[in-house]
């Protein structure tokens, strides 16, 4: 009697991987079919304005003299890229983005830990933490402008190291600080919400095993929690960085670009709306769009997250 031989282990492993691969491909196809209508609708809505901006950026075109429109190829881009004001505004934008996102990441993670671990009055605490994000940005900016104002604000009275007659909007760095504080206060809850979603995916079994092995809280944080939250952290940083890079409302309300606090978005607004320079404004908007794409690519490359592996597909 001949004994039945078990299939080789390598063959079984290859079949299992092939099944997982086919399942992943099927899920990807289903996901593409589900998002296709929304993507097509978004493209139909956004494609025309984007192409129109690209087209207008090739002209010297001021709305007050519509008949004096001249095709000048890429001269508007040369004008923008050789203007020191553009690079000053780009520096302001990058600085605001880096500082606010870094501070929000730290505070947001602390809030996420509290919301994840709290047992008593969890719903009330989560709601109270998320309240600032529910406030309209313009309303929030007006509130912080009032808080930092020279005559009516309360910030000078609350800070013992600041003179009572100190004008926060009278110089570049204090004004930038006020803008950053308003941005951090408004959007930290959004960061906390995204990090909370990632924190809930960290295996409690892994944390308990690390604790049994004698790992301290800091060791569990650096060796278990943060590595398993890498994908969630990348998404949180990506969303907030792209949003912060397009900052406009806070600057418009609090300083109107005074004291060299303009951002690239505010410069685009001034050229397009206030000065009705549609050619230059369109060139600025195209450059802003391209820089946002570049920023998104850099963040994804910096984190190096394998999203397929994060979903458990490989």
Task: Explain this structure.
By secondary structure, this protein is mainly alpha-helical. The chain has one domain: MetI-like (MetI-like fold, Orthogonal Bundle), CATH 1.10.3720. It has 14 helices and two strands. The chain has a two-stranded antiparallel sheet with strand order 1-2. Helix 2 (75-81) crosses helix 13 (278-303), helix 7 runs antiparallel to helix 10 (230-245) and helix 8 runs antiparallel to helix 9. The longest helix has 48 residues, at 9-56.
- Assign the CATH class: Mainly Alpha
E-strand count: 2
- The appropriate CATH architecture is Orthogonal Bundle
Give the uncertain stretches in residue-range form: none
Structure annotation, total helices: 14
Class based on secondary structure composition and strand pairing? mainly alpha
- Counting structural domains, the number is 1
Helix content: over 70%
Q: What overall form do the CA principal axes indicate? A: flat
Strand order of the largest sheet: 1-2
User: Could you tell me the mean pLDDT?
Assistant: 87
Q: Report the C-alpha radius of gyration, rounded.
A: 26 Å
Largest sheet: 2 strands, antiparallel
The CATH topology turns out to be MetI-like fold
């Amino acid at each position: 009697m001949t004994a039945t031989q078990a299939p080789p282990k390598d063959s079984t492993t290859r079949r299992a991987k092939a099944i997982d691969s086919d399942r992943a491909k099927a899920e990807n196809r289903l996901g593409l079919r589900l998002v296709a209508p929304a993507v097509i609708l978004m493209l139909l809505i956004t494609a025309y304005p984007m192409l129109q901006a690209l087209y207008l950026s090739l002209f010297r075109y001021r709305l007050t003299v519509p008949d004096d429109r001249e095709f000048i190829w890429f001269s508007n881009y040369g004008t923008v890229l050789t203007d020191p004001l553009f690079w000053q505004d780009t520096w302001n934008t990058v600085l605001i983005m880096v500082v606010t996102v870094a501070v929000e990441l730290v505070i947001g993670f602390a809030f996420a830990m509290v919301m994840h671990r709290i047992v008593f009055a969890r719903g009330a605490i989560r709601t109270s933490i998320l309240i600032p994000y529910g406030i309209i940005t313009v309303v929030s900016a007006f509130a912080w402008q009032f808080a930092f104002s020279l005559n009516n604000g309360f910030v000078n009275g609350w800070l013992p190291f600041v003179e009572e007659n100190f004008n926060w909007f009278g110089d570049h760095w204090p004004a930038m600080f006020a803008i950053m504080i308003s941005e951090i206060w408004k959007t930290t809850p959004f960061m906390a919400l995204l990090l909370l979603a990632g924190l809930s995916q960290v295996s409690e079994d892994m944390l308990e095993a690390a604790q049994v092995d004698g790992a301290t809280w800091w060791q569990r944080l650096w060796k278990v929690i943060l590595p398993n939250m890498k994908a969630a952290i990348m998404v949180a940083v990506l969303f907030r960085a792209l949003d912060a890079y397009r900052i406009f409302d806070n600057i418009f309300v609090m300083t109107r670009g005074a004291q060299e606090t303009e951002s690239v978005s505010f410069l685009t607004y001034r050229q397009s709306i206030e000065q009705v320079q549609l050619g230059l404004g369109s060139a600025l908007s195209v450059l802003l769009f391209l820089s946002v794409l570049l920023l998104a690519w850099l963040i994804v490359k910096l984190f190096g997250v394998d999203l397929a592996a994060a979903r458990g597909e490989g």
